[in-house]
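chain below, 85 aa
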Amino acid sequence: MTKGHIAAFYSTNNAEQKRLHAQHAIGAAAFDNQLLVFPGAQDVLARPDLRILDNAGADGFSLMELRRQLKHPESAELVSADIAP
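prediction:
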């Protein structure tokens, strides 16, 4: 698949970004704004030197929000990857 094909299928326009941010907000609200939901999630968020990959992360908005929930954000490595240009 070429870059042109990717651009045709994956929009990065303002409307799409707003939709993704709204989707994030709805999902977060459904879980009391906890972005990691599994047994032990709070222990994970308290770890120093935490490394997280958000695959298909669009503009990285979800990781920016997650950073606020980390006990040691200064030592965390958060990477958001997406194939959309």
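The chain has one domain: 3-81. The chain has a mean pLDDT of 88.
thats it, cya
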